[in-house]
């Protein structure tokens, strides 16, 4: 569990709190508070006592990406008090695909384009893949270069 006190602006202290753990082949990240603006020291003390206690409505959304998913919390307590946002990442799958040389990743991505697609459609689809985080900036540039040739 962790509590980070952001003291960049003493007049509006912010805290981030939650937990990180690995279970089986998954990396779990729970954010109870992310840069939550605290009112006095009592909220800081609450977070230090229980880093998973949600101190206010979250002002952020977790985005899971291609290897992650948001795990929904359940139960009456969650309904009344709120629950940490829970991101689960399949790190084994991530490492399998990210660990390969770019040429292998690029070639497999290139095969996903239909041969009947126009160049404009392929470039648009490629840009969407980059924006959704399905490919890295380096993969995007490499594939774009190949398509334009």
In short:
This protein has 149 residues and is α+β, with helices and mostly antiparallel strands. It has helices at residues 40-49, 76-81, 91-98, 102-110, 119-131, 137-148, and strands spanning 2-6, 14-23, 26-37, 68-71, 85-90.
Number of E-state strands: 5
The H-and-E topology, N to C, reads as: EEEHEHEHHHH
Q: Strand pairing plus helix content: what structural class?
A: alpha+beta
Oligomer: single chain
Low-confidence stretches: 76-80, 101-105
**For the residues shown, what is the average pLDDT?**
78
Going across the biggest sheet, name each strand in turn. Answer: 1-2-3-5-4
**How many domains, in number, for the residues?**
2
The major pleated sheet works out as: 5 strands, antiparallel
Distance between the terminal alpha carbons, to the nearest Å?
50 Å
Shape, principal axes of CA atoms: elongated
Alpha plus pi helix count: 6
What fraction of the residues are assigned to beta strands by DSSP?
Answer: 15-25%
Radius of gyration: 21 Å
Percent helix among the residues? 25-40%
Outline the structure in words.
By secondary structure, the protein is of the alpha+beta class. It folds into two domains: about 1-95, no CATH class; about 100-149. The protein contains six helices and five strands, in the order βββαβαβαααα. It has helices at about 40-50, 75-80, 90-100, 100-110, 120-130, 135-149; strands at about 1-5, 15-25, 25-35, 70, 85-90. Strands 1-2-3-5-4 form a five-stranded antiparallel β-sheet. A hairpin with a 7-residue loop joins strand 1 (about 1-5) and strand 2 (about 15-25). The longest helix has 13 residues, at about 120-130. The protein is elongated and about 60 Å long.
